[in-house]
Amino acid sequence: MSTTYLITGANRGIGLELSKNVLSAGDSLIALCRRPEAANALQKLAEESDGRAQIYAADVSDETMLDELAQQIDSTIDVLVCNAGVMSARGSLADPHNTAESVSTVLLTNIAGPFFTARAFLKNLKLSKQPRIAIISSYMGSQQHSGAGAYFYRASKAGVNNIMVTLANELKTQGIAVASYHPGWVQTDMGGSAADITSAVSAKGLIERFGELNLAKTGQFFNYDGSQLPL
Ligand SMILES: NC(=O)c1ccc[n+]([C@@H]2O[C@H](COP(=O)([O-])OP(=O)(O)OC[C@H]3O[C@@H](n4cnc5c(N)ncnc54)[C@H](OP(=O)(O)O)[C@@H]3O)[C@@H](O)[C@H]2O)c1
């Protein structure tokens, strides 16, 4: 049976590769990105999908835009993938890029974005027989991670892992499983060319993990290879 995925930040990087995997498996895709008119690779995928992909404009930090979009979409969503994210300042305490504006953007995008997206499309998830919410987080947000720097990116991923646990607690009684995932260190605009793995390797693993997500695994944090990670 076909599975319908909604993926945010679907126009490039891990989101684009997840979108490719969904369509090559014969499943359906609701692809969200900030500027569909500039999303050439995603448009090409949609054109080649025999109508299984729809692309919509959405900024995950804009709750009104997400709520209005959700009113236009009646279809069932089986897997809601909150992938869109920003990195912001990567440096130490002395990094001058940690301004109020950049801190606000990373926290709003990476923490509130998945919350606003899940809230807007909850009605679509409730139509599914096996509803799942998958949040792309990062091991950099784990309290066990030994690295320094990138203060607010780390805090944003720790924050969204906390949102994940709270969502899992609230939605368990409604049969909706929620988990967060570390995609690996991935060769994308954010990860850089020196990263460990390609977006193809990451996306293949993540799609397998989303397939395994159920209520027995809700509230947990996983690596793309399936190993469990500490929050
Ligand atoms: N790459 C890694 O090594 C790595 C490691 C751990 C976790 N992650 C996480 O994996 C996810 C994807 O990262 P990536 O490596 O694919 O990054 P990327 O190549 O920089 O792509 C980021 C995506 O998020 C979108 N986005 C950013 N802000 C948005 C907003 N407000 N509303 C909607 N879309 C927005 C971007 O859209 P635009 O094109 O419009 O900017 C783009 O599609 C992120 O959550 C990231 O934190 C990545």
Automatic annotation (TrEMBL):
Pfam families: adh_short (PF00106). InterPro entries: NAD(P)-bd_dom_sf, SDR_enzymes, SDR_fam. The lineage of its organism: Bacteria, Pseudomonadati, Pseudomonadota, Betaproteobacteria, Burkholderiales. This is NAD(P)-dependent dehydrogenase (Short-subunit alcohol dehydrogenase family). Gene3D superfamilies: NAD(P)-binding Rossmann-like Domain. CDD domains: carb_red_sniffer_like_SDR_c. Belongs to the short-chain dehydrogenases/reductases (SDR) family. GO terms for molecular function: oxidoreductase activity, acting on the CH-OH group of donors, NAD or NADP as acceptor.
